[in-house]
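Fig. S4 source data, part A: sequence.
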Amino acid sequence: MRVSTGMIFDSGVNSIQQRTSSLLRTQQQVSSGRRILTPSDDPVAAARALEVTQSKEINAQYVTAQGNAKSALGLMDGQLSSTTDLLVRIRELTVQAGNATLSAADRKSIATELRSRFDELVALANSTDGTGQYVFSGYQGSNKPFAGSVDSGVNYIGDDGLRTLRVSGSRNLPISQSGNDVFMRISNGNGTFVTGLPTERPSNIHSVGIDAGTITSPTDWATAPNSIEVRFWVDAAGSIGAAGATYYDLVDAGTGDSLFTGSPSATGATGSYTHAYTSGAPIAFSGLAAAYNPPSNDFGASVTVTGNPADGDKFSIDNVSGGLKTSPPTITHANAVIDQGVVTDPVKWSTAGNSQNLEVRFWVDAAGSIGAAGATYYDLVDTTTNKSLFTGAPSATGATGSYTHAYTSGTPISFSSAAPPAFDFGASVTVTGNPASGDAFTIKAGTDPQGNGTFVTAPKMVAAENMGSGIIGAGEVLDAAKWNSPYNSKQLEVRFWKDPADLSPNAPVYYDLVDTRTERSLFTDTASTSGGSGNTYTHVFKSGDPVAFSNLAAPYKDFGVSVTIQGTPASGDAFSLKNSTTQSVFDTLADLIKAIEGPAAPAGGTGNASLQNKLGFVLTNLSKIEDNISRVRAGIGTQLAEVEDLGNVSGSLDLQYASTLSNLQDLDYAKAITDLTRMQVELQAAQQSFMKISGMSLFNYL
């Protein structure tokens, strides 16, 4: 075979290039530490390495998320720890406020610190994380969740969601809390029922009472019908006298005839209601029609009614075995009602000058100091300042007061006035009936279904103060199933009565258990009555002994709870038991502040029992709040432990991924360096061989 010079050169160059390429590739492997420089080096291993690398990077993202979650949870736990410390201080101040030796100035100082603590609590509830997100706002991390004050209350404007971070392939870990769960929805009382002071009642409810009656002539009374009724009528139109005056009729309940006329009882100008009513003046069963007990026309008896009867009120007087029995002992009613109101201009209603916490108050000008005697006037009042909207000064009755607008039943009362100080809130309400002096209706902003969507109207609510030294505890649940009996309205009261005829120094105090929804005694299932033949106050009260809601009349039988009352309640005192609901930590603290800032005891009360009861209710609720915070912190602790465990798992996975990648990609340095040295020798040999071969020529031998 003939070998040309070109072939020699081509062969030598190709050999050098191949060895140079192999040498450079091996040098790259050694310098990078990687066996696979391109997928073509090992397609199967390269594909597997790509999968493992992606998994490793995802795991690294989870590790970062775990760190962020740990930081967020740690911050949240720290804020709740500060909240717990704050609650401890509030508890200390609550106990301190109950010291009977404290002066009004001392209590004011405590209340001042509590107001500061209230603001601190709101600030803690509005805590943010490192990114500016609110930790107690649910999903709405960018919205400040809590706003308000001691006097106006605190509202939650977040939601119930939980923001989460993906900390593993199958776990989304919550890193926030709903402020509702932490600060707002906390069970009050003992968790089943809550004890309290007397139940609030509408201030517009008026009682009309009747006494036991007096028999002046048993012989004449023996001729009376079996049942007589005292019926009342309010002459609103003034058809027989002054407009709004009240008249009564005595009626034979068996026939419906008036004892005064002998014909059917009837109202109006020509009716039988011709006797003017005066509270406290005896109503005599005399001056009767000729058909009744002639010739005296007198049944020899009388009764006394007190209060302001409404149109249609009536009392029964029964002739029982020669005796006289009146019933019911009292009638309660409201003489006026209010509608839902109308908003004619929502923009005006939302004006800055409207506190949206208003009252319509009424006053009867009995003396005729500004108009006709007995005329009714009203005032519109901002209850946050107690100032009249009409005058800008404190609301006041009388000739120089702010009750200058005459009331007409059924005529809209507009929340506007052109006279200074001029105002227009773009709304009105309508009151019908005959309000008594002191009656009031509230108009408060709210979206409750009972309202009109903008505000809610209602009779003003008041609660009577206890006058005795009785202090009630949180109560004990003996059987929760019995408490949930269908016959339990969960609107109960323990009421106390002392027989006024018993003047002995150790006269006992009696109690009754009452369903306030029906005003019936749970012991007898009859109307709760103090004294007389229908007396239901038959259980002697002993301080410190449990008052058990058991051994009740059918169908009540047993409600499975008891309460303990220390001290000596006064006659007329009462304590309420209601189903446990939820109350925010802010409302509890506001109740505490208002209790301390108020009087230690009501006028005529005994000691500081009123304050002690209110402080006791707060301490019970504080225990529930602390339990709730502990529950939330326990959940956060569990989540932190979970993050730690996930971190350990992620660390192990990272090592496993690194080992797998090393097996797939890493270079065997011993073999690679040996190959590199060999390739260097081969390259040098190829270069030298090429030089020598390329230098050979026939011309050298000529």
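Fig. S4 source data, part B ends here. The two ends are 23 Å apart (CA to CA).
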